[in-house]
Specification:
two-stranded antiparallel ribbon, Cytochrome Bc1 Complex, Chain D, domain 2, 2 domains, two-stranded antiparallel sheet, mainly alpha, single chain
């Protein structure tokens, strides 16, 4: 987790520098030889609240399985759980037999796999249990009813 946090804190200034450099290159000369901004984006001045969000720890504060799913999972696995192929392969969660036991999705969320980053440092035990129960009882899955719900205690045990 420290490696991910270090990587994120290292890359953020590089991204800002790249955006600033691109903005300078995009300035267009005027008839008088001066330069003018060519886009409102290039004149963007973040508020203190926006800077605080950017500087924040990266913790995800959403509560409840559906909210956590929509904030962290739906972008890749799609809002309907059908999965996607693009920059990576994001498996469908809909009708996915691998989700029958809660231990497998708990482990994947904590540790990541292939194109999926580890989210254990961004989500607490209850958030992970909630999102695991959400995906195991949504998208045509009925595994919570059949095999029982994931608990925050199971997540804590898997973290160790």
């Amino acid at each position: 987790m420290k490696t991910l946090t270090t990587a994120l804190s290292t890359i953020a200034p590089l991204i800002l520098a790249a955006v600033a450099a691109q903005a300078q290159e995009a300035q267009a000369p005027t008839a008088a030889g001066e330069t003018a901004q060519t886009s409102e984006f290039r004149t963007f001045d973040p508020t203190e609240a926006e800077w605080e969000i950017f500087r924040s720890s990266g913790e995800i504060t959403h509560e409840g399985g559906e909210a956590v799913y929509n904030a962290t999972c739906a972008g890749c696995h799609r809002p309907d759980g059908e999965g996607a192929v693009g920059a990576g392969v994001y498996p469908a969660l809909a009708d996915n037999e691998l989700l029958a036991a809660p231990s497998y999705p708990i482990y994947l969320i904590l540790e990541g796999q292939r194109a999926m980053p580890p989210l254990g440092g961004f989500l607490d035990d209850q958030q992970i249990a909630d999102v695991v129960n959400y995906i195991r009882s949504s998208f045509g899955n009925e595994f919570v009813e059949e095999f029982g719900a994931a608990t925050a205690e199971q997540v804590a045990e898997t973290r160790q």
